[in-house]
Specification:
This protein has about 100 residues and is mainly α. The protein is built from four helices and no strands. Helices cover about 75% and strands about 0% of the residues. α2 crosses α3 and α2 packs across α4. The radius of gyration is 19 Å and the shape is elongated.
Length: about 100
């Protein structure tokens, strides 16, 4: 959050960031985390059913049978939830930090 704040304000500590912009920062961060973690979660979930002997075999089978899209199954519902959660968390964090500054 602080890195994005410095980027947005140009390093001016006296300048505040509007809450909608803070929410957009949070939603973007949440979306990036989902895109980075979903392939790992897909492989983990498929490994839990016990039909693969190794993680690499599971990943190889998903790639061969379903392509890259197979690694992103269930991504959209998760992205909707996580983007909202992280946007809210960033807004709460920003509001609490504003309280402590005064």
């Amino acid at each position: 959050m602080e890195t994005l704040r410095k980027w947005y304000t140009g390093g001016d500590q006296g300048k505040s960031v509007p809450k909608p912009v803070v929410a957009i920062f949070g939603a973007t961060a949440g979306g990036c985390s989902v895109l980075g973690n979903t392939p790992i979660d897909v492989v983990k979930t498929r490994m839990q059913n016990g039909s693969y002997s190794s993680t690499m075999e599971c990943a190889k089978q998903v790639a061969m049978k379903e392509g890259v899209r197979g690694f992103y199954k269930g991504c959209l519902p998760r992205m909707n939830r996580v983007c909202l959660e992280v946007a809210l968390a960033f807004c709460i964090y920003d509001s609490v930090m504003d309280i402590f500054k005064t």
